[in-house]
Model the fold of this input.
Amino acid sequence: MNLVLIAEQTLNGLQLGVMLFLLAAGLTLVFGIMNLVNLAHGALYMVGAYLTTYFHQTTGSFALAVLLGLAGTLLVGIVTELVALRTLYERDHLDQVLATFGLILFFNELVAILWGRAAIYSTIPDYLSGHVQITAQLRYPLYRLVIIGIGLAVAVLLWWVVSRTRLGMLIRAGASNRAMVSALGINIRLLYTIVFGFGAALAGLAGLLSGPIYAVQPGMGELILIQVFVVIVIGGIGSIRGAFAGALIVGMVDTLGRAFLKPTLATVLSPTAADAAGPAMASMLIYLLMAVVLAFRPEGLFPSRS
Amino acid sequence: MHKPTATLMAVLIAAAFATTPAFAQQKVKIGFITTLSGPQGVIGNDMRNSVELALDHLGRKIGGLETELIYGDDQVKPDVGKQVAEEMLKKHQVNFVSGVIWSNVMLAVAPTVTQAGTFMIGTNAGPHQLAGEGCNELFFTTSWQNDQTPEAMGKYMQDAGLNDVYLMAPNYAAGKDMITGFKRYFKGKIVDEVYTRLGQTDYQAELSQLRSKSPKVVFVFYPGGMGIQFLKQYSEAGLRGQFPLYSVYTVDELSIPAVKHAALGQLETRYWSPDLKNPANQKFVGDYGKKYAGKLPSFYGAQSYDGMMLIDSAVRAVKGNLSDKKGMIAAMRKANFNSTRGKFTYNQNHFPIQNFYLLKAVAGPTPGGDPVMAIQKAVFTNHKDAYAKDCKMKW
Done:
C-alpha cells in the first residue's frame, strides 16, 4: 500500500463526500427547519441531471446548460413546494413519507415519458476533461477535482449564509421556534419556500455534476438517497455542519473500505475468503458506522442546537 | 327429413369446433426478453431494432404465419426476468421465448421456459451451466458460450507474448466465465483479478487501485452502459496512455458513439463484425442503417436478427405445425438459415461452432465520424466451447 494510492483514494473519498454533502445540505435543512421528511429529494437531483444534460445537448454550451439546469431545478423545487408540500407541514411524518414517495413515482415516470427509460449519457466539455499531473506518480481527472472545488466552495458559502446573514439568522430561528418567528412578523411560509427552493437547487447541482460520472436515468436519485439519509443521521438532523462532517466521513469510509478492506483481509484470511468477504463488508461499512453512531450519540455527531 | 339434417348440422358444428384450436395455432407468438430501462437499455434497444428488422425482412410473418412479438424488460434482474417469462408463458401462451442479455437472468429464465415445454432461443447470454450439464433440447442460442470470446483474446495476447495482465469484470455469472475463458488460453503472469458490482457506473476507486499495481496491460469485460462509463473514466484518469487496454464486449457499436475517438486503436475479439463479408450480413447492416438513421448495428443486434431467422427456419421446416416440437428441434440443429456470421453448425449442446476474429477500432469512412470496428484476422476457426463434453444430450 503506497502513499500515492492512499492519496488518490483519499481524493476519491473526498469527491464522493462533497457530492453527498450537496444533497445532504438541502435534505437536512428541509428536515431541520420545516420538519418535513422529503423522500423526493433524490427526484430533484435527477431533475437537475436531466435538465442540464438536455440543455447541454440542445444549446451545445456546458456553462449555459449548468445555469439553465440550476434555474430549472430551483423552479421545479419551488413549484413542488407551493403545489404539493405546503399542505403537509402540519401532518405527521408518515403522511409526508407517503406523499413524497408519490412524488418520486411521479417524477420518475415523468422523465421516463420525456426522455425514455434507457439512460442518457452526458459528456464533459473538452476544457474539463483529461487529467491533472499532481505529483510525478499521481494523475487525477480534472473533472473530479472541479467537483471537489465546487463542493468545498458551496460548503463555505452555506456556512457564511447560515451564520453571517439575516436570511441565515431567520433560518436558524425558524429551526428553533417556528411560532415565535412568525409571531415576530416574519413570513414563515415565504421562508419555507426559499429554503426548499435552495435545497432543490443544491440537489440539482449535485445531479448535474454527477451526470457524467453516473448514468443519467430514471430513478437515479433513489440509488444515492439512501446514502444521503445515512449522512444526515450520522451528522445530526438539521445541522449543516453535521451534514458536512457526515458526508465526508461516509464518502471516505465507503471509498477507503472498497479500496483497502479486501487487501487488508487478505493478509489474515485466505485470498478466496477475502475476495468474498471484502466487497460484502465494504458495502456494509457505512451502515455499521451509522449503527455505532446511533448507539453512542443518538442525536448524531453535530446535533443542531434546537 | 329433419333428423338427418340435424345430425349433419351437429357434425358440422363439432367439426368446426374441432378445427378451431388448429386455426388458433396459425399464429406464432414470440416473447422477447431484453433490458429496456436504465444504463443497459442501449443494448435492449439495439436488439429490439434488429428483431423488428428481421420481421420486416420476413414480411412480418415468421415461418409464413401471422406473428406476434411481445417485448419484456428484465431490468438486469433475474427475478424480474423470470416473472416476465412466466407472464409470457401463462398469459400470452407464447410458442418461443427469445432474447436475454445477462447470464444471471438467463440462468433464471431458461429453466422456467424449458420446464414449461417451450422453446428458449437465447440471443446473447451463454452461461457455462447451460452449455454443460444443464443443456436442454428446447434451448438453442444464436450467440456463443461466454468463455469463447475471451478465449480468443487470451490466445491472441498469449501469442503476442504479453505479460503482467490486470483483469477486471463485473461480479456475476458471465464475468466469472469471461475470466475463466481468458485464463484457459493465456498462460502468462496475472497481476490481479478484480470484480466490480454488476451495473456499477463509477470506476474511479478501482482505477486508482489498478494504477498502483502497475501492470503492463489490462484486460476487461464491461458490456453495454458499463463499457461506456469504464472507457470514459479510463481515459479521464490518464490510464489510456499508461496501460494498453484489451477487451471483450466493451468497445462496440454501442459504446463507440459515446466515447468516440477514445476508442481508436482498441482491440477486441468477436465472432461477428459489421464488415463481415457475406450477403446476409451486408443486407442486415445496410437495411439497419436505412431503417435507423444511419446507425450501425451491434453484435447484440446481429444475434437477435439470427434468432428470428432460426425460429423462421424451424417453423418453415414443420410447415407451420407448431405442436411438432421434435420436428422443430431437428430443423434448428441444422442451422439452416442465412446467418449474419456466415455458415455455422451447431454443437451437440446447441451452441454454435464458429469463427472468432480479432477486431480493431479504426477511423470511420466519413472524416470526423466515429471509429468503426474492422476485422484484422481470424483467431479461431470452427471453435467449440469447453463445456459441450459435459452435455448428455443425444441427437
About this structure: Chain A has a mean pLDDT of 90. Residues 3-296 of chain A form a domain with the ABC transporter involved in vitamin B12 uptake, BtuC fold (CATH 1.10.3470).
